[in-house]
Amino acid sequence: MKEIEKIRQYADSLRLTLLKNHPESLIHEAQIDNPGYLGFTLNLLEREIKQRQKTDLERRLTLARLPKDNDLAQYDFNHSNGISKPQLKELRELLWLDQNYNLILMGPSGTGKTYIASGLVHDAVKAGYKAYFKTMEELLTILRMKEMTGSAMNAYNRLLKANLIAIDDIMLFPMKKNEAVAFFNMVNHLHEKCSIIVTTNKSPKQWAETLDDEVLATALLDRLLYRCEVIKLDGNSYRMENRKSIFNQ
């Protein structure tokens, strides 16, 4: 039908994705329910808004680059690691994010640092914030390549406009001087504009050794710790206590 094709074209021009992809079913549904002109228009616009919100959320979750496990509703409090259910609930309310507070999650491997960080990024994205999860290695790659490739520069510009950035395994490996300076410059630019979550298995005192520059480490910590909650996680590794086997139990 020519009318259907015109509807598709007009819907495409107006970015009405639902109407563009399903005009026949929407019209057939209206013919059966007979909602009237006002009801049909209102219903169509409401469904388009929901579809656009769903698509936008999916896009932002993809850009956040989250690990597979990030649903804090499934957090296992039976595994004691130093964070309580009320504390996690308060963090998930994201009031600290509106105040540009930072979080440092510090502790041995397997104590839930990455899970908590990625879960809070997931919550932030769902709440409408621009939030991203990066390993330190991924972040350093962006900083190294941003002057060379458009994709790295685009990723860097997105980070500069973020509301929340989680940096996983900071200071795990030594950094070259130019990488450390580039990282400091980014943190300095984001200072009091964006919340940063850091996961680390090293104390702040050990950062100077990793950076091989006590002055730079002090300046970096000065910005991260200014408005910051340091959460020390401990206990045994959750992964080791719940490791899987290829053999039947």
Automatic annotation (TrEMBL):
Q: Does the keyword Nucleotide-binding apply?
A: yes
Q: Where is the signal peptide?
A: none
Sorted alphabetically, the Gene Ontology BP terms of this entry are: DNA replication
Task: Give the source's domain of life in one word.
Answer: Bacteria
Which SMART domains does the entry link to?
AAA
Q: Pfam families, alphabetically? A: IstB_IS21 (PF01695)
Q: Which UniProt keywords apply?
A: ATP-binding, Nucleotide-binding
Which CDD domains does the record associate with it? AAA (cd00009)
Asked if ATP-binding is a keyword of the record, the answer is: yes
Q: Which residues form the AAA+ ATPase domain?
A: 99-232
InterPro entries attached to this UniProt entry: AAA+_ATPase, DNAC/IstB-like, IstB, IstB_ATP-bd, P-loop_NTPase
Which GO molecular function entries does the Swiss-Prot or TrEMBL record give? ATP binding
Question: To which protein family does this belong?
Answer: Belongs to the IS21/IS1162 putative ATP-binding protein family.
Q: What is this protein called?
A: DNA replication protein DnaC
